Structure prediction request, 153 residues.
Amino acid sequence: MKNLPMWCVVAALTSGTVLASPDPMKAFPEAEPGYQRVVIQLPQVKDPDLRRVQLIPGKVIEADCNTRGLRATIEEKTAAGWGYNYWVVGPVTTGPTTMMACPEGSAKKKFVPVYSETLLRYNPKLPLVVYVPNDIELRYKIWSAPTKAKVAK
Prediction:
């Protein structure tokens, strides 16, 4: 603030507009008991409209050779007064599994996901905020589409 008139320095210090940076998480609620808030900041890309984000909540468990899955809802909500979207992963329960006879000692640690086909809009300007139960890990994939669409015949 060198070489600025004194009234500019006083105005900047009292208004906080120059020195204070807004907290981007202020718009989002705190995590409820038993939940954690996970924040994903997507990188800037050339064509964000050609990308989507898939949320993959799940859990690392000791599992045998059977295919396993978990169940939960992923609900979109809006931050009151702000209009920003966030997502809440509902309670996670045991899902479908195959019932194969597995060889003894075949159990190992595996990430078992909650199945979801939901693809979210790719927006690098805002954080992607997701609330998940404390015992759940959140992974994600970024999907991209080609620039040109094909013509159906």
